[in-house]
Amino acid sequence: QVQLVESGGGLVQAGGSLRLFCAASVRTTSSRTFSTYAMGWFRQAPGKEREFVAAISWSGGSTDYGDSVKGRFTISRDNAKNTLYLQMNRLKPEDTAVYYCAASTVPGTTKNKNDYSYWGQGTQVTVSS
Fold first, then answer.
1. Segments of 14-122 assigned E as strands
2. 118 Cβ neighbours under 8 A, 6+ residues apart
């Protein structure tokens, strides 16, 4: 019922910044709207498990971050535009991964990837040293 499309990834030098976008499309036959979904960002590097990056509540009033990105990344959303954002600053080579946005019907914020029902196809972020 929700389609998610990420964009904004690319190649950046260590210390640089990128802003990721996640455009959401909700079926018109759905009883829910984008603003009723909690949203999250996850990432997956080659050979590693998918890792929680950040989450935001439906209203944007509550956020949560993985320990490795706290203080460097900022998650936000614009419900009027059906868009989720991830501002990434002071990037490190270890931030290199495919980044996915996801939607959840769980209230508040959640770090558990199993709580997310809808996923985008991902956008590659590569940070060179």
1. 18-26, 38-44, 51-56, 63-65, 73-78, 83-88, 97-104, 116-119
2. 1, 2, 3, 4, 37, 102, 103
Write out the chain's pLDDT in tens, 129 residues: 899 999 999 999 999 999 999 999 988 777 889 999 999 999 999 999 999 999 999 999 999 999 999 999 999 999 999 999 999 999 999 999 999 999 999 999 999 999 999 999 999 999 999
Separation CA 120–CA 122 (nearest Å): 6
Residue 66 contacts residue 40 (beta carbons within 8 Å): no
